Amino acid sequence: MVTEACKKNHVTVNGLVAKPSKEVFATDKITFRKDQITQIITVLDIPESRVGAKLVDMYRRNDTPAEAYQHLELLKLSKEHYRKNGTGRPTKKDRRDIDEFGNDIISENDDLD
């Protein structure tokens, strides 16, 4: 997944496009886009060997601005307002109701003219 993002030039290290084999050092800033947010991660230190997922936070700092997360919440709410999660495509009855509602609005506008 990360390799694909690097190949598509979606990952930068210190402002430069990174290849999958790019070596990362302490104090490097890694920028990438995930879930419609531009994430900024600062590398604090490099572990000597592989570490578990729970220990990764000791070696990095998330510098993503709080406004980006607020923007994501607004996007989620706006999508939820349009159609509730899990309801899927509109049924035939829903579509007919939507069409009828649109026709009612058009006929009301014609009556005003």
Describe it for me?
The chain has a five-stranded antiparallel β-sheet. The mean pLDDT is 83. The protein contains three helices and five strands; from the N terminus they run H-E-E-E-E-E-H-H. Helix content is 39%, strand content 19%. The longest helix has 21 residues, at 92-112. The N and C termini lie far apart (57 Å). It has a domain at 2-65: RNA-binding S4 domain (Structural Genomics Hypothetical 15.5 Kd Protein In mrcA-pckA Intergenic Region, Chain A), CATH 3.10.290.10. A hairpin with a 2-residue loop joins strand 1 and strand 2. With 113 residues, the chain is α+β, with helices and mostly antiparallel strands.
Keywords:
alpha+beta; about 110 residues; five-stranded antiparallel sheet; 5 strands; Structural Genomics Hypothetical 15.5 Kd Protein In mrcA-pckA Intergenic Region, Chain A; single chain; elongated; 3 helices
